[in-house]
Amino acid sequence: DHDILAYDDAAFRTESAAAMLRRYKPTLGGGTCERDFGNGLVDHWRKQKRTYCAPRSDGSNPARPPSKIDCYLVKQTSHHGSGDNLCVGENVRVSFADLADGKTPQAYFKRYVDSKHQQQHSKIAYRKGTLAADCTTDKEVWQSKHFPGWNVNWFNAFEQTDDLQCDVWEESPTLIVERDTFANFFHNSEDFVNTLIALAILEWSTDDLQLLFTDLYPKGPFWPIWSQVFKGRREPLTAWDVAQKYGDKRVCFRKVGIAILGAASPITVASFNTKCKASSIVRAYSDYVVRGLGFAPESRYASTRDPKRVVVTFMARRSSGEWPEKRFCDSARSFFDCAKLGHLGIRKLGRSVRNDGEVVRALKSLEGRAFPNGARVTVRDVDYSSLSFEDQIKTNLDTDVMVGPHGAGLMHNIFMPDRAALVELFIDGSSANRHFHNLANWQGRQYHSASLANPVPTGQLLSLVAAAISALDLSKPY
Predict the structure, then answer these.
(1) Distance CA 126, CA 158 (A)
(2) Rounded distance between C-alpha atoms, residue 258 and residue 265, angstroms
(3) Using CA atoms, how far apart are residues 371 and 317, in angstroms rounded to an integer?
(4) pLDDT, tens digit, for every residue of 102-145?
């Protein structure tokens, strides 16, 4: 059930995301599991297609091609609000003047800095006419409540026109994304997963896809997923790139999508324990990233190795790196002004293990221990913040047991081999959030956890990790 890993370059770029996802088995668990976390969600979402803005021209006049906006509004199980939406416009006009004028991005960046990085600065309230089309809106559905989060800014900026007055026509299918963040792997993954879901709903491939980002963030640590995994023949463009390319020109698109809000990702919607296992979306997404980065040959599935060798990776959570806003700042090619970030130094992380060194030494003691399944253990102490993103994924591919405190980095567990296990440590009262319990189960792997004091009692930790090692099925190397 790892078909995507076997795709050659041409097939990976030209086959639709929908066709790729359909190769993965239905999600287990019964009930609504398949519709909530599997291909059933994609199919259900696609069936909700409705014309929100109907053409007013018949296309007989070449100067007035028929505009249309279709949307796919879905109410996911247990999600708040009136639904989550994906919209696609045909023959519509977009103006990027709010990005190109310089003043608007500066004002939003200042707000971000002044709020001590708490105010999300990227949600620009666009001027009227930023989105325009020659179509008639359906008042029953064309309502702000159906455009959650940042999507409502496009709704508020819409203008009906009978003359698009285009300076530029873009023929390639285009998806506009506004990232929830740029330096938190879990919340970034919301946008990654939603982009794959959107491509599957629309039955698009990445071959001729153009990705446009309208948030103001710099590229950030996880940019390789955009620039390698979702890139076909066209480079993804940040908001700064968009402003340089188009300026205040009126840009018309044959087909342009407004992506799904990040917080509407199925990996986020369920923060409670689910009974669902082996999600076709999560499993396909994991393989999609590994294949897109070109790491399929380095995965366990493509190599022969000693099945008794077990790698335990301690995912250290240390306050050892600069704030990502400063580390990945780029005044020359983004709307971030690095001169205004001098106050940022080493980022202080919460939920850090206070006796970190003692924990590492205790875990190392597992290397000489005998296990009933014959495991021969190697322990690695890894500070992911010190690795490139590519090296982070390579580390995951060769990890059998991932151990770490609750935090965004545990999103990495979905890239481990099938036989692997996640050991989540709840310290400092974080046990209510069940995202990583779910992700482990949706990937189809073992999950272990414990609420521990901090400093962490090493004896209790060793018992937990030893049990996870002993429960591994070592009859196969992956």
Answers:
(1) 9
(2) 15
(3) 28
(4) 899 998 888 888 877 665 545 789 999 999 999 999 999 999 99
Whole-angstrom distance, CA of residue 139 vs CA of residue 478: 53
Nearest CA-CA partner of 287 in 36, 86, 6: 6
Whose structure tokens read 């023929």?
A: 171
Q: Does an H or E element contain 175, and which?
A: strand 174-177
Identify the CA nearest to 466 among candidates 383, 368, 354. 368
d(CA 14, CA 83): 31
CA angle, 406 as apex, 400 and 410 as ends, to 5°? Answer: 40
The three state secondary structure string of 186-241 is: HHHHHHHHHHHHHHHHHCCCCCCCEEEECCCCCCCCCHHHHHHHCCCCCCCECHHH
Helix (H, G, I), strand (E, B) or coil at 401: strand
Contacts of 293 (CB under 8 A, 6+ apart): 224, 225, 228, 229, 390, 393
Averaged pLDDT score across all residues of the chain: 93
Q: For the chain, what's the residue count?
A: 478
φ, ψ of residue 14 to 5 degrees: the values are -100, -25
State the pLDDT at residue 122.
Answer: 52
Tokens of 155: 């709704």
Q: What is the pTM of this model?
A: 0.96
The tokens describing 430, both together, are 């974080």
What's 297's DSSP letter?
Answer: G
Is the torsion defined by CA of 238, 244, 245, 251 positive or negative? positive
Helix, strand or coil for residue 437? Answer: helix
Strands (E), 301-349: 309-315
Contact 148, 85 (CB under 8 A): yes
The gap between the terminal CA atoms of the chain, to the nearest Å, is 12
Please check whether residue 269 is in contact with residue 77, taking contact to mean a CB–CB distance below 8 angstroms. yes
- Among 196, 226, 233, which residue's Cα sits nearest to residue 212? 226
pLDDT value for 267: 95
